[in-house]
Amino acid sequence: MKKVKYRPSVARMLFLSVSFFLSFNALVLAQDNPEDQAVVQETVQGAQESNVEAEPSGGDAAAGKELFNTLCAACHKLDGNSIGPPLRGVNERRDVDWLHSWIRNSSELIAAGDEEAVAIYNEYNQVAMPPFPQLSDADIDNILAYTGQPKAVPQEKQPGDAAAGTQGGGQGGISTDILLGILAFVLLMLLVILFLVNRTLRRFATASGVELPVREKRKPIWKSFVENQFLVITTAIVLMLVGAYFVYGYFMQVGVDQGYQPIQPIHFSHKIHAGDNQIDCKFCHSSARVSKTSGIPSLNVCMNCHKSIGEVAEGTATDEYSKEFYDGEIAKLYNAVGWDPETQSYTGETEPVKWVRIHNLPDFAYFNHSQHVEVGGIACQTCHGPVEEMEIMYQNAPLTMGWCITCHRETNVRTAGNEYYEKVHEELSKKYGVEELTVAQMGGLECAKCHY
């Protein structure tokens, strides 16, 4: 009998390998317990936050914030100039009794010749501050308590925080990644064992004179397929039909830009303006009432509000867009129009904003915004989608001919209060035998309505 070559035990090798793997990971995980570090860090941060939140005595900052947002925010900011000066720490720069008199009636102080009052009046273009005689001493103290709060500085994330979080996930046992690595290693070793066992058994069979079964060589499947004419013809027909379907679909999408969402030079959030602040679409796109096009709002329209709004509120920020990002976009607007927020005046140095057009109809297609918006009473969202929910504007509808025709066939004409349509409705309703007429029944499908 042929001598079989000696091989070391595969099971022993597997056991030693797994033992070494577990021992190595145990050494890696043998670190200090991060719970104590987390407690110490939380204690230190808690002490820091307590210092930040400390409120000056003599007023309720929470009540003062509400009064500030109601009465003062239109002309003042806590930080930075607006129509009036910044108010953070004003109780440290001015006498409290003088502030009470100034807030109640600034005009009296100016008329009396108070030097500080006259200086502020002249510095801010001689715009008098409106009087607030309804405010009590407690109300003014509350406002001063709010403006006296120090500016919150965001704490930077410490380098050890990420490591502590990673270690914390492994408390109470071996982490999931290590377990998956062990399982993958064991499966790999099992495959090696099966390969070695199979090769050893074949050698035993060869040494013992046992004939191993030999697979018969079969005809290749592609050759059998070619010899079957029915399958060849059927496959060719199916491929031709599928190819024609995809080619037709491709050509039908030429010029269709549904979902197009370009990045604009200045980030404009329709969600904030039309959604959160409920600004009417036609306030900015005013030409949609009287013109064929909706028009691009001039930057002067933006400055109607942003002369006084130089930064967004803290609650406006999201996980994707921070407050610093939005404030930076407002700064781009200031650079474009040449507005200096410090002096509250125009510098005369402007830069053009190259907006990227989103909705674009072919030149041979005619569409009139005023006819749809004013006469037809169609809401902007009908064609442009939920604009009030869009952070970045995109093309919602396909704007194809079929899409327009479907709308004309399903939309009834608004005839109430329109003498011209009332006369047409009276005649055509008898012709079609209906109570309400669609746009299609009033000629909305005629070629010349939309094509020159």
From TrEMBL:
SUPFAM superfamilies: Cytochrome c, Multiheme cytochromes. Residues 1-30 form the signal peptide. The chain crosses the membrane at residues 178-197, 230-251. InterPro entries: Cyt_c-like_dom, Cyt_c-like_dom_sf, Multihaem_cyt_sf. The keyword Transmembrane helix applies. It comes from the Bacteria. Residues 59-151 form the Cytochrome c domain. Keywords: Heme, Iron, Membrane, Metal-binding, Signal, Transmembrane, Transmembrane helix. This is C-type cytochrome.
